[in-house]
Specification:
This protein is of the alpha+beta class. 33% of the residues lie in helices and 21% in strands. Helix 1 runs antiparallel to helix 5.
């Protein structure tokens, strides 16, 4: 008489080694995907915010309800502020950002260029995929939202003998911001959009300086300058990257045409396809390995 087979052992039962290998792959994929995913989501959030800002600015200006000043009024007040400002700026040691030291007597900094969502301007650096709102001041909470304008320096409206300073974080896990500012080269361009005014700057100088060296942040007679500032090296923040641009006049027509348009960021997340592919491949591996592991011993 024959004996029973005991059920044949053909069920799906992945071994402990299979589960461990799959877990390692999935955890590794998650860790590697976190930074690009967080940065992509931050860029998406910033692009929606900028689009909302543009739409509100246009709508409020057209309606002339007085909830925000008209572009001419806002820009005029900002230029008067710049004329009164006795420029000064200091990049203090052991701090993440520079601090202003200008004389603002007779001016109300926080009320100037106070647009929708408290945004004063927009900065775009196409060569390194930067498109950020610019807010008043450089407080920690401000710099988690976007770029900050250094109080005590010229407001970002251009003009002879003006020098605006804009700063942003570098190396945040959840946002790229000015992380790639070290890749900007002399001859590259960046653009400020302030209450509909388009200001295009060509990079004249890039340098790394000690925190106490603020000479490069001073206004220069007759020149229209903007300096972008962030910390370096990543994670140490002992020095500052300074990228200084001088305004191009007349403003290039293609830049005027791009004013108040939606952000081109974030770009398509190719990294997500790789992550999804890895997850699907891991699932397929566990599925097949489970049947192989469940085969009865010969």
């Amino acid at each position: 008489m024959g004996t029973g087979s005991g059920g044949g052992g053909r069920g799906w039962r992945p071994s402990l080694v299979t589960w461990a290998a799959a877990a390692c792959v999935l955890i590794g994929t998650g860790l590697l995907s976190y930074t690009p995913a967080a940065s992509w989501l931050h860029q998406y959030s910033q692009s929606r915010l900028i689009e909302s800002y543009n739409q509100q600015l246009l709508a409020e200006s057209a309606a002339n309800r007085g909830e925000v000043p008209s572009p001419d009024e806002a820009l005029g007040a900002a230029r008067r502020y710049n004329e009164q400002l006795q420029f000064g700026a200091l990049v203090e040691a052991n701090t993440h950002v520079p601090t202003g030291a200008g004389d603002e007597t007779g001016s109300e900094y926080w009320s100037l260029l106070n647009g929708p969502a408290e945004i004063m301007s927009r900065i775009r650096i196409p060569d390194v995929d930067v498109d950020l709102p610019v807010y008043h001041g450089t407080a920690d909470l401000t710099l988690l939202r976007g770029a900050g304008h250094l109080r005590g320096t010229s407001l970002p409206v251009g003009g002879a003998s003006s020098h605006a300073v804009i700063t942003a974080h570098r190396g945040l896990a959840e946002a790229s911001m000015f992380t790639d500012l070290d890749r900007v080269e002399v001859g590259d361009r960046f653009t400020l959009e302030t209450f509909g005014e388009v200001l295009v700057y060509e990079v004249q100088q890039t340098q790394v300086v000690a925190p106490e060296d603020s000479q490069a942040l001073r206004a220069q007679e007759g020149r229209d300058l903007v300096t972008l500032v962030t910390c370096t090296p990543l994670g140490i923040n002992s020095h500052r990257i300074l990228v200084t641009g001088e305004r191009i006049l007349p403003t290039p027509e293609e830049d005027r045409a791009a004013a108040l348009k939606s952000s081109e960021l974030p770009r398509f997340p190719w990294w997500a396809l790789l992550s999804i592919g890895t997850v699907l491949a891991t699932i397929g591996f566990v599925w097949r390995a489970g049947y192989r592991d469940a085969r009865p011993a010969e």
